[in-house]
Predict the structure.
Amino acid sequence: MPQPWWRNAVFYQVYVRSFADSDGDGIGDLPGITSHLEHIRDLGADAIWLTPFYPSPQKDHGYDVSDYCDVNPEYGNLEDFDRLLARAHELRLKVLVDIVPNHTSDQHPWFQAAITAPDNPFRERYHFANPKTAEAPPNNWTSSFGGPAWSREPSGKQWYLHLFAPEQPDLNWWNPAVPKEFERILHFWLDRGADGFRIDVAAALFKRRDLADRPFLISPVTGMPHFDSDFAIIDQPPLHDVYRRWRQIANGYEPARVLVGEIFDPRHHAQYIVPDQLHMAFALIHQRWNAALWKRSIDGSRRALQGPGAGPTWTLANHDVVRPVTRLGGGSVGRARARAALLLVLGLPGQVFLYQGEELGLEEADMPDPARQDPIFFRTAGRMKGRDGCRVPLPWRRGEPNAGFSTAPPWLPMPAGWDRLAVDAQAAAANSTLAHFRRALAARKELSGRLPDRITWLPAPEGVLAYERGPLIVACNFLSRAARLRLGGRLELASAPLAAEKEGILHLPANSAAWLLRVARPQMPVAGAS
Ligand code: GLC
């Protein structure tokens, strides 16, 4: 049976506000994306994911939706969406749109109606509750953006739930009007030709009914509180029925459309990634640069999804996390590691999601506090810097104002020298990060029909990971010194120019990875790090 198109596909996340600006307002837009789609095609991706472009007050940059079936005028209109989709399809790129079902904007007509009167029926579509005491919210849940997950409604009578910003009231999925409305929204975009959805905070739609106090965890990575599924605030059983229904809807189109869930905890992926629910859930590798931790993370996600047709969806970056180059050490070391990490992950079975700018080796941008826009920065009174640093617009052309992103200063400032990493400059340089990404994606595509869906770890010195997948051998050196391995195989691709293979021995510079193609059976590794 031929595989569905999305199996093992490479997706490219377009952060709409920062990709390309066509009308000179310093904000990316849909026509800007349409005119730069060749970049994504030339990179070798199979599909794009567009972050929310719907009408929105932009309190969380589009994740606060006030109308799910239109386009924010800043970004264009529905015809611009249709043109983008048509051009993408001409270039053989599928298009996923982002659906935000957990919450609306507080400017959504439903919420606006809800707060007009205490008996307004639209209140049932959100979570309104009485305070515990005059000044204390209904329970102890906290918002992922800082502070309590409850705010007083304008009349002051009751409080409403928001797991994110106060301008993002959570919908009450126990109310049948809510799932019904989202089915209509799914059809709206699928009828227009969208190839599927990325589902925002996909495990959180139903909250435990009793709204009881629960313990919260603090993420060791972000320092932010988060709702752990073990505490059963989210991940409620009726959510699976919703996704069963969505899968039926997706299957009703030809070819079937796909559903990708943002589900943070890989231990829960198996509940959702089953033949009658979602197709994919992100496995974000967010570990520091350490071979054992990366192996554990990769194995954790592989173990979680072993059912038929299920496999991890690898990603190293998105618009919510510090850019990999910076996370992995910054500067030339961070960039070398990010290039190596790409080979490690691209060799694995499963889908891969890239985030715009990863192919340019962009770093997290530092910016002055007055320029910051992320609600996390404001909600934590500046204690957390927020996510603006990974959202700075893309540099397209070296030496041009605003690096060719826009004729106007961009909505987030570009650091000095940002244009040195521009697409045109890197396209012309054989050893650039962009050239590396293009080579790696092309090699993966070329090998795709020959690679089985399983890998075997190979013996390797401490600090080095190596696995084989059919004829492909992937080795990644996490050490800050060179390593030598006897793996057999002919060197196909390397993240560092000095990688070399001679008489079956691979020389891997510090912080680099390579792909080898098997020519003979592997032998035991010689020599550890050298
Ligand atoms: C998701 C999005 C993030 C957004 C949040 C609330 O995690 O990726 O950007 O702030 O949901 O919608």
